[in-house]
Write a structure and sequence with these properties.
The protein is α/β, with parallel strands linked by helices. Helix content is about 40%, strand content about 20%. Helix 2 links the parallel strand 2 and strand 3. It is globular. The chain starts with a strand and ends with a helix. The structure holds 5-O-phosphono-beta-D-ribofuranosylamine. 5-O-phosphono-beta-D-ribofuranosylamine binds next to helix 1 and strand 5.
C-alpha cells in the first residue's frame, strides 16, 4: 500500500512541522506517510524557510483580509494540486472552514497546547502561565466544525513544576508536542483511531 500523502499547514515557527518531517525521515513516521507540501497562511511565517531548508515544497496561501469561508475555498483550491489524504495543522492559526472539514472528514488533525476540554483558543501556554498551573496537557485531536472541539486522539502531561517563565513553559510543552504528534499520526495512519474518524465523518455523510 502506498503511504498516505499529507499536507502540513503552518502559521509561524514550524517546529512541529520540522519534528514531523524528521520523523518521516528517521523516526516513527518513516514509510508511514509522505509529505506533499507545507502551506503557510502568512508570507512571513518563519516555518517556510525551515521547510525549504528541509527540501520541502512550500506554498503561501495568504489569509489576510479573508473570512473563514472565503479562506477555506482558497485552501481547498490550493490543496487540490496535491490531493493529500490528510491535512496536518501544525501551529496553523486560522479556523478551518466547514467546507474544508467536509472535504477531508476525519482527516484533518491538530495539536493544541492545552487540554481542549479546559481551554480553547490560541495561547494555551499563556493560559497555563497565567493560572500558574503545576502541569498542563497537550492534545492531538481530529478537527471538526468547531474550534478545538474534535475527538481527542491523545493527550500527554507536561510538568510545569519550577517553570517560572512562559518561555520555559513553551520549551517544556514543545518538547512533549514534538514527540507526541508524530507518534499519534503514526497511530492514526495505522488505523488505530477509526472510531473517532468515523464520528467526524458520519456528521458529514448525514449532510
Ligand atoms: C504549538 O504550541 C502548537 O501546539 C500550537 O501552536 C504552536 C505551534 O508551534 N497549535 P510551532 O509553529 O509548531 O513551533
Amino acid at each position: 500500500m502506498t503511504p498516505p500523502r499529507i499536507a502540513v499547514l503552518i502559521s509561524g515557527r514550524g517546529s512541529n512541522m520540522e519534528a514531523i518531517v524528521r520523523a518521516t525521515r528517521e523516526g516513527i513516521l518513516r514509510d508511514r506517510c509522505a509529505i506533499s507540501c507545507v502551506i503557510a497562511n502568512r508570507p512571513d511565517a518563519p516555518g517556510l524557510a525551515r521547510a525549504r531548508a528541509l527540501g520541502l515544497t512550500t506554498r503561501v496561501v495568504p489569509s489576510k483580509g479573508l473570512g473563514t469561508r472565503a479562506y477555506g475555498r482558497r485552501l481547498l483550491a490550493a490543496l487540490a494540486e496535491w490531493h493529500p489524504d490528510y491535512v496536518v495543522l501544525a501551529g496553523f492559526m486560522r479556523i478551518v472552514s466547514s467546507d474544508l472539514v467536509a472535504a477531508y472528514p476525519g482527516r484533518i488533525v491538530n495539536i493544541h497546547p492545552a487540554d481542549t476540554a479546559a481551554y480553547q483558543g490560541p495561547d494555551g501556554y499563556g493560559w497555563a502561565a497565567e493560572r500558574r498551573l503545576s502541569e498542563t496537557l497537550v492534545t492531538v485531536h481530529l478537527v471538526d466544525e468547531g474550534v478545538d472541539t474534535g475527538p481527542v486522539l491523545r493527550q500527554e502531561r507536561v510538568s510545569l513544576t519550577g517553570a517560572e517563565t512562559k518561555d520555559e513553559i513553551v520549551r517544556r510543552g514543545l518538547a512533549v508536542e514534538h514527540a507526541l504528534y508524530s507518534e499519534c499520526l503514526a497511530e492514526l495512519f495505522d488505523g488505530r483511531y477509526e472510531d473517532a474518524v468515523a464520528r467526524v465523518a458520519s456528521r458529514w455523510r448525514r449532510g
